[in-house]
Specification:
This protein is of the alpha+beta class and about 200 residues long. It contains four helices and nine strands.
């Protein structure tokens, strides 16, 4: 039988902590914030390389700084707008709320997203990728991919940052980021468990 810490968090006979988090997508925009950051990083690189190429083809590098700024702003703004639209489409499909499930064990954390949310967000990001291809000359840009089940091995974590305002623990890893959500009364328990198992460098030691 599971031992219950709070209304949403339990620990089973296997030693695995399990809990759920009900996210209000209209109030908690941490997922949208993360997607926009990823978009900004991708298009910063694309716009610099693309603008340098265009400036060179059109007569040298003297006009490159202006080209970088103009193309970067236009493409970045258009992509960001499509991500925002995709986010609110997903919110509408789920009525603004969705439940995320977590399982936390000694070697890492598993997260399970609702299937409808994954489909809606992926559709929004796919539309953004296609729009970026149209603006950038026909080749689709890279886009972040959501999957129904995600895993974060503690050994790979390089940084841990807590955002109490979003009930979120952000784990940085070489392959990207992983967000852990928990109710306010569960957040400290999850934070202490994670910090006790990630490498010392992730704790700033």
């Amino acid at each position: 039988m599971d031992d219950r810490f709070t209304d949403s968090m339990t620990i089973g006979p296997d030693g695995v902590y399990r809990w759920y988090y009900d996210m209000d997508m209209y109030e908690n925009k941490s997922m949208l914030y993360t997607l926009l950051k990823v978009n900004a990083l991708i298009f910063a690189g694309i716009s610099v390389l693309g603008s340098a190429f265009l400036a060179f083809m059109e007569g040298g590098f003297r006009g490159m700084p202006a080209g970088v700024l103009a193309i970067g702003l236009i493409m970045g703004a258009a992509m960001s707008l499509l991500y925002i639209v995709g986010f609110y489409i997903a919110a509408g499909i789920k009525g603004g709320n969705h439940r995320i499930h977590f399982a936390m064990r000694d070697d890492g954390i598993e997260l399970v997203w609702p299937e409808k949310l994954v489909g809606a967000m992926d559709a929004g990001m796919k539309a953004a990728s296609i729009a970026g291809a149209a603006m950038g000359g026909g080749r689709r840009g890279r886009r972040p991919t959501l999957t129904e089940v995600s895993n974060a091995p503690f050994a790979a974590v390089t940084r841990v940052k807590v955002y109490p305002q979003w009930n979120m623990i952000d784990l940085s890893m070489p392959g990207g980021k992983f967000q852990v959500y928990a109710k306010a009364e569960d957040l400290k328990q999850a934070e202490e468990y994670i910090l006790a198992r990630v490498p010392a460098r992730a704790r700033g030691e």
